[in-house]
Amino acid sequence: MDAADWDDRYAQPGLVWSDAPNEFLVEFAEHLTPGRALDLAGGEGRSSVWLAQRGWEATCVDFSAVGLIKAAELAATKGVTISTVEADASTWRCEDPFDLVVMLYLQLTEPARTRALEAAVASVAPGGTLLVVAHDVDNVTEGFGGPGDPAVCYRVADVTTVLGGLEIVEAGQRTRAVTTPDGPATAIDTLVVARRPAS
Question: Do residues 55 and 78 lie in contact, with contact meaning Cβ atoms separated by under 8 Å?
Fold first, then answer.
C-alpha cells in the first residue's frame, strides 16, 4: 500500500487502530527517562501520544497526511502536543537523533524494509534506545492476524543484521494474546530492543 492507499484507509470515521499503546512499547519505555522520541511510521499517532503523555517530546513520522491529521487530533483530545512529519520511513533521515526510536508493525518488502530499519538505527542518539516490533514470518502459519504475505513479515535477523553499533538488549520472538469473536488467539511478533552506547 502506498501513501494514497493509507490516506483512503485513514479517511474512514474513527481510528483504524486502537488509541491504546502497544504492550511492548509500554513494557520497554515506561521506565525510561523522557527525552526526545521518534515514532517512525507512526500512523494515527497512538505511540507518539502515549509517549507525550509521559513527558516525551514526541515526533510522529508517516507518509500519510490523513494519518498525521488524526495523530494531531488524537493528541489534542488527550491534552498533549506532538510533532508530525510527512515522510516515507524508508527514505527519511533525521538531522538530530532521538533518545528513543520506535518502529512498530511497519510491514514492508525488501529493500524498503532494510532502508527503513537503517533509518531507525541512524536516528538513535548516543545512550538512546531502539524498539522494533513487527509481525513475524511464523505468524503467517502459526499465529493470528497480521498480513498473510510472508514477504512483508519479519525474522529477527532482518533487524539484528542492520543494527551497526547498537547493542542488543533483547532479540527474539514474542507472543501476544489476541481477543477474537471466536475466542482467545495468539499472535507471534518479532521484537528487538537495542541501545547505542553513550560514548
Answer: no
Look at residue 5 in the predicted model and tell me its pLDDT.
54
Question: Is residue 15 one of the residues assigned to a domain?
Answer: no
CATH of the domain at 120: 3.40.50.150
Peptide bond into 111 cis (omega under 30): yes
pTM over 0.85: yes
Confidence band for 7, pLDDT divided at 50, 70 and 90: very low
Bridge partners, 100 (sequence order): 37, 129
Tell me the DSSP string of 15-84. -SS-SSPPHHHHHHHTTSPP-EEEEET-TT-HHHHHHHHTT-EEEEEES-HHHHHHHHHHHHHTT---EE
Is 21 among the domain residues? no
Assign 67 a pLDDT band (cuts: 50, 70, 90).
Answer: confident
Integer Cα distance of 66 and 16 in angstroms: 12
